[in-house]
Amino acid sequence: VSTQSTWGFMDLMVDTIGHRQAQALLQKGELVTAQHAAKIGLVDKLVPLEDVRKTARAELADYIAVPTYSRRITKRHIRANTAGRLMQQRDEDVEHFVQFITQARVQATLKAYLEALKKKAK
Question: 26 near 5, Cβ under 8 Å?
Fold first, then answer.
């Protein structure tokens, strides 16, 4: 199911995986496998389910080792442009999304998709 992405979501995707990958995924409305997500940088790493907590704790320890002020200011500066755009466009994003998602054709597509998921789950 392809839906219209908000400007903020599109900005985040571009910032995360680059223009080319974001454009292809968003235009096609594609879902990606975990392996593909790792390959394009959408996720940092893949680990077996039983190793998730251990891996997350190790990653967190690496971040905690960096002085809080340095970590916070770096994060704030790196995200400043995107955060600013998100805040400026929040109302517009919500309005566009609501207008899109409430269209009869979109609702019909979503209903069909959910029905297909129900059948697949049985």
Answer: yes
